Protein backbone atom coordinates (compact mmCIF):
# COMPACT_ATOMS: atom_id res chain seq x y z
CA UNK A 1 0.00 0.00 0.00
CA UNK A 2 1.02 3.58 -0.60
CA UNK A 3 0.08 6.90 0.96
CA UNK A 4 -0.41 9.75 -1.46
CA UNK A 5 -0.24 13.27 -0.05
CA UNK A 6 -1.12 16.09 -2.41
CA UNK A 7 -0.88 19.80 -1.71
CA UNK A 8 -3.22 21.66 -4.08
CA UNK A 9 -4.83 25.05 -4.54
CA UNK A 10 -8.03 25.30 -2.47
CA UNK A 11 -10.32 26.03 -5.43
CA UNK A 12 -9.19 22.77 -7.10
CA UNK A 13 -10.12 20.50 -4.17
CA UNK A 14 -13.71 19.70 -5.19
CA UNK A 15 -12.63 18.78 -8.72
CA UNK A 16 -9.83 16.56 -7.39
CA UNK A 17 -12.19 14.82 -4.93
CA UNK A 18 -14.78 14.11 -7.63
CA UNK A 19 -12.18 12.83 -10.09
CA UNK A 20 -10.60 10.52 -7.49
CA UNK A 21 -14.03 9.18 -6.60
CA UNK A 22 -14.64 8.36 -10.27
CA UNK A 23 -11.44 6.26 -10.47
CA UNK A 24 -12.30 4.27 -7.34
CA UNK A 25 -10.72 6.10 -4.39
CA UNK A 26 -13.19 5.52 -1.57
CA UNK A 27 -11.88 7.72 1.23
CA UNK A 28 -9.57 10.61 1.94
CA UNK A 29 -8.49 13.07 4.60
CA UNK A 30 -8.43 16.77 3.70
CA UNK A 31 -6.74 19.47 5.77
CA UNK A 32 -6.50 23.20 5.23
CA UNK A 33 -2.82 24.12 5.43
CA UNK A 34 -0.54 27.07 4.74
CA UNK A 35 2.88 27.04 3.18
CA UNK A 36 5.14 28.23 0.41
CA UNK A 37 7.60 26.86 -2.10
CA UNK A 38 9.13 28.67 -5.03
CA UNK A 39 6.09 30.94 -4.97
CA UNK A 40 7.51 32.64 -1.84
CA UNK A 41 4.27 34.37 -0.86
CA UNK A 42 3.08 37.74 -2.11
CA UNK A 43 2.39 41.33 -1.03
CA UNK A 44 -1.09 42.61 -0.16
CA UNK A 45 -2.48 46.03 0.62
CA UNK A 46 -4.59 46.48 3.78
CA UNK A 47 -5.87 49.92 4.81
CA UNK A 48 -3.19 51.60 2.78
CA UNK A 49 -0.32 49.58 4.24
CA UNK A 50 1.52 46.93 2.25
CA UNK A 51 2.42 43.71 4.02
CA UNK A 52 3.97 40.41 3.04
CA UNK A 53 1.93 37.19 3.07
CA UNK A 54 4.56 34.48 3.51
CA UNK A 55 2.33 31.45 3.91
CA UNK A 56 -0.28 30.85 1.22
CA UNK A 57 -3.48 28.86 1.83
CA UNK A 58 -3.42 25.34 0.37
CA UNK A 59 -5.31 22.10 0.86
CA UNK A 60 -3.57 18.86 1.80
CA UNK A 61 -5.22 15.67 0.61
CA UNK A 62 -4.17 12.29 2.03
CA UNK A 63 -5.23 8.93 0.60
CA UNK A 64 -4.01 5.37 1.09
CA UNK A 65 -4.37 3.07 -1.90
CA UNK A 66 -3.28 -0.38 -3.05
CA UNK A 67 -0.12 -0.56 -5.17
CA UNK A 68 -2.12 -1.09 -8.37
CA UNK A 69 -4.08 2.15 -7.81
CA UNK A 70 -1.11 4.47 -7.25
CA UNK A 71 -0.43 5.55 -10.84
CA UNK A 72 -4.11 6.05 -11.62
CA UNK A 73 -4.60 8.19 -8.49
CA UNK A 74 -1.45 10.27 -9.12
CA UNK A 75 -2.36 10.84 -12.78
CA UNK A 76 -5.88 11.87 -11.74
CA UNK A 77 -4.55 14.40 -9.22
CA UNK A 78 -2.03 15.75 -11.75
CA UNK A 79 -4.64 16.19 -14.47
CA UNK A 80 -7.26 17.73 -12.19
CA UNK A 81 -5.13 20.03 -10.00
CA UNK A 82 -2.99 21.41 -12.85
CA UNK A 83 -3.46 25.07 -13.78
CA UNK A 84 -0.04 25.67 -15.32
CA UNK A 85 0.64 28.52 -12.91
CA UNK A 86 3.16 28.69 -10.09
CA UNK A 87 1.85 27.23 -6.84
CA UNK A 88 -0.08 24.28 -8.33
CA UNK A 89 1.32 22.11 -5.54
CA UNK A 90 3.15 18.84 -4.96
CA UNK A 91 2.39 15.12 -4.71
CA UNK A 92 4.28 12.83 -2.31
CA UNK A 93 4.04 9.03 -2.48
CA UNK A 94 5.30 6.97 0.48
CA UNK A 95 5.09 3.35 1.64
CA UNK A 96 2.52 2.33 4.23
CA UNK A 97 3.56 -0.63 6.37
CA UNK A 98 0.31 -1.29 8.19
CA UNK A 99 -3.25 0.03 8.44
CA UNK A 100 -5.73 -0.94 11.17
CA UNK A 101 -9.42 0.00 11.22
CA UNK A 102 -10.11 0.86 14.86
CA UNK A 103 -13.80 -0.14 14.86
CA UNK A 104 -13.37 -3.69 13.46
CA UNK A 105 -9.69 -4.50 13.86
CA UNK A 106 -9.42 -5.17 10.11
CA UNK A 107 -5.93 -4.69 8.78
CA UNK A 108 -4.18 -3.45 5.65
CA UNK A 109 -6.19 -3.39 2.40
CA UNK A 110 -9.38 -4.57 4.15
CA UNK A 111 -9.03 -1.55 6.47
CA UNK A 112 -8.72 0.94 3.63
Summarize this structure as a short list of keywords or feature phrases.
112 residues; alpha+beta; 4-stranded antiparallel β-sheet; two-stranded antiparallel sheet; 2 helices; 6 strands; elongated
Secondary-structure map:
Elements: E1 2-8, H1 13-22, E2 29-35, E3 42-46, E4 49-53, E5 56-65, H2 70-81, E6 89-95
Antiparallel strand pairs: 1-5, 1-6, 2-5, 3-4
Helix pairs in contact: 1-2
Q: Terminal Cα separation, in Å? A: 9 Å
Distinct helical segment count: 2
Q: Give the SSE order as H and E letters.
A: EHEEEEHE
Mean pLDDT: 89
- Secondary structure: helix percent: 10-25%
Largest sheet: 4 strands, antiparallel
- Uncertain runs: none
Our Rg estimate from Cα atoms comes to 17 Å
| Strand order within the widest beta sheet | 2-5-1-6
The general outline is elongated
Proportion of residues in extended strands: 35-45%
Helix/sheet category: alpha+beta
- How many distinct beta strands? 6
How would you describe what is shown here?
- With 112 residues, the protein is an alpha+beta fold.
- Helices cover 20% and strands 37% of the residues.
- It has helices spanning 13-22, 70-81, and strands at 2-8, 29-35, 42-46, 49-53, 56-65, 89-95.
- The strands form two sheets. Strands 2-5-1-6 form a four-stranded antiparallel sheet, covered by helices on one side. A two-stranded antiparallel sheet has the order 3-4.
- The longest helix has 12 residues, at 70-81.
Amino acid sequence: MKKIEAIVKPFKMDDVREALSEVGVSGMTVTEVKGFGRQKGHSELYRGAEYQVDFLPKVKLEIVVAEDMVERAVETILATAHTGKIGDGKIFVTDVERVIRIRTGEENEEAV
